């Protein structure tokens, strides 16, 4: 079941997936004639019939993950589709997804996006494309300066993550959030948390939290503690997703991504 809302000339299409006691929402956005992301293959039928009623003539992908590109193959047949240049090869390949991700979001077929430029114009909007790696190498956020909007893909999702995926990097996410915080925006359009009118405050909260975690991990690391001890001390609780994902999602990756890129300069208290 999808929920469709329209506010400030932005259409938000919300879908939900539930599996194994875990529930996640996913949002697609339409502004003027631009569709941002295509949703997971698991919701293909519902999304296809909803998107038939909408008007769009180009698609931008925030990144290549299957919950954002699951319907790109079919939708890109009649409409040009764009991703960051670093995502093109990833989208052309059949992804080797872990079993739990195939079961949860569905698989995605390969497709061939075109490279995004630095700016995208629609009838009433101009979007700056901001490369924001950390969650994925090809991740982009779209900034509409005049309206104060940031389409943030998976850059935010939540203020205080207690675990991340093996392919993510906390230091890179910190760099990307710092990059977008230099821009003017208030409202954030998140791919999993929806429309956040106080988006700037929420993203600032996440930045403060991640920097504090980075400081704590590095302090313990410099005391000579191992990654597994640091994990136990800072993130003692378990979550069903850790087991469901066979630990592809785990607090361990927060700790190791910080230690891997540690340097004396990054050990600063915020
Ligand atoms: Zn993602």
Keywords for this entry:
270 residues, binds zinc ion, alpha/beta, 15 strands, disordered C terminus, globular, Metallo-beta-lactamase, Chain A
Write up what this structure looks like.
The chain has helices at 44-52, 66-69, 72-75, 88-92, 99-105, 170-181, 199-222, 227-234, 240-244, 251-260, and strands spanning 3-7, 10-19, 22-31, 34-36, 58-60, 81-83, 114-115, 119-121, 126-131, 140-144, 149-153, 164-165, 187-190, 194-196, 249-250. It has a seven-stranded mixed beta sheet with strand order 1-2-3-4-5-6-7. The protein has a six-stranded mixed beta sheet with strand order 8-9-10-11-13-14. A two-stranded antiparallel sheet has the order 12-15. The protein is α/β, with parallel strands linked by helices and 270 residues long. Helix content is 33%, strand content 24%. The protein is globular and about 55 Å long. Helix 8 packs across helix 10. The protein has one domain (3-211): Ribonuclease Z/Hydroxyacylglutathione hydrolase-like (Metallo-beta-lactamase, Chain A). Bound molecules: zinc ion. Zinc ion (ZN) binds next to loops.
Mean pLDDT: 94
Choose one word for the global shape.
globular
Return the CATH class: Alpha Beta
In CATH, the architecture is 4-Layer Sandwich
Q: Main sheet: which strands, in order across?
A: 1-2-3-4-5-6-7
> What amount of the residues lies in strands?
15-25%
The main sheet comes to:
7 strands, mixed
Topology, number of strands: 15
List cofactors, ions and other ligands: zinc ion
Full CATH superfamily name: Ribonuclease Z/Hydroxyacylglutathione hydrolase-like
N-to-C span? 43 Å
Low-pLDDT runs of 5+ residues are: 264-270
If helices are DSSP runs of H or I spanning 4 or more residues, what is the number of helices? 10
């Amino acid at each position: 079941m999808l929920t469709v809302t329209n506010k400030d000339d932005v259409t938000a299409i919300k879908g939900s997936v539930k599996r194994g006691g875990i529930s996640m929402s996913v949002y697609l956005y339409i502004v003027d004639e631009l569709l941002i992301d295509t949703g997971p293959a698991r919701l293909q039928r519902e999304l296809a019939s909803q998107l038939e009623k909408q008007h769009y003539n180009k698609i931008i992908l925030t990144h290549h993950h299957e919950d954002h590109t699951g319907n790109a193959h079919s939708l890109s047949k009649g409409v040009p589709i764009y991703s960051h240049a670093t995502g093109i090869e990833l989208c052309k390949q059949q992804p080797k997804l872990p079993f739990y991700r195939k079961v949860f979001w569905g698989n995605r077929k390969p497709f061939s996006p075109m490279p995004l430029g630095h700016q995208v114009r629609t009838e009433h909007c101009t979007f700056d494309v901001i490369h924001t790696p950390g969650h994925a190498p090809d991740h982009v956020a779209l900034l509409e300066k005049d309206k104060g909007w940031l389409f943030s893909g998976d850059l935010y999702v939540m203020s205080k993550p207690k675990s991340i995926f093996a392919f993510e990097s906390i230091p890179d996410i910190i760099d990307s959030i710092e990059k977008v915080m230099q821009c003017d925006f208030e409202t954030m359009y998140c791919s999993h948390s929806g429309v956040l009118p106080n988006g700037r405050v929420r993203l600032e909260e996440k930045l403060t939290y991640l920097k504090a975690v980075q400081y704590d991990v590095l302090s313990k690391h410099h005391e000579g503690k191992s990654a597994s001890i640091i994990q136990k001390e800072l993130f003692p609780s378990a979550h069903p997703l850790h087991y469901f994902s066979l630990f592809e999602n785990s607090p361990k990756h927060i700790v190791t991504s910080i230690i891997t890129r540690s340097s004396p300069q990054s050990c600063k208290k915020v």
